[in-house]
Amino acid sequence: MTKTRIRNLFDPAAKTPFKLSRSKIENFTRCARCFYLDRRLGIGQPSMPPFNLNTAVDTLFKKEFDIHRAAGKAHPLMEKYGVDAVPYAHELLDEWRENFKGIQYHHKPTNFLVTGAIDDLWVNPAGELIVVDYKSTSKDAEITLDDQWKDSYKRQMEIYQWLFRQSGFPVANTGYFVYANGRTDRKAFDGKLEFDVTVLPYTGDDSWVEEALDAAHDCLMSDDLPEPNSTCEYCHYRAEAAKVEI
User: Fold this and answer.
1) What's 18-244's CATH class?
2) CA distances from 236 to 7, 35, 188, 229, 239 (A)
3) Hey, CA dihedral for 219, 220, 221, 222, is it positive or negative?
4) Among 10, 96, 131, 236, which residue's CB has the most CB atoms within a 10 Å radius?
């Protein structure tokens, strides 16, 4: 149930850094009004059910790549798709993967503590980190990154790339989505799902992140509620509901 929250609210007068996650930055890019209601006024959007099957796929991917990480060898998928890299080993990897923690960077101009929990990192022979994100779906069509709604996936990767660059790591422009596609052409379920796995390259451009952080900060510093976003389903719902509510 959505209710007014009293924790994790932005205070314009506060001196301590305000934690802003990758997902909240995404929310801002979609709708400044919903972002303001959430982070400034404590009125969050309705929660979504957990995607447990997707989480299970992510967990198994991590276990699988960790086997090759420990051996210092490339995963067969890397070899299949011609990716000259190996899984990256670092003492903070588990922390960077942890939800509500992840990799963190203090962006001093806004006093935001920007955070993001990654799925994986690979490293190429030049020592550049490669950001990797696991995705899962089930569809008959070819898996691509062309769908407009997948722009959020691209921004997600670019924020991760930005976070590691700001933290002093060399980062390759090209990251990869490891995409598991559940097959429905089997004769029966038989208590198991089978997947085809595709590795999709994406060349990121994180040049928008700084501007987005500045704009998000200006938004939160204001005492005025932003105008509704004409393309936001939540704004549209609230407006239509208000017409008939007493």
Assistant:
1) alpha beta
2) 27, 15, 42, 8, 5
3) positive
4) 131
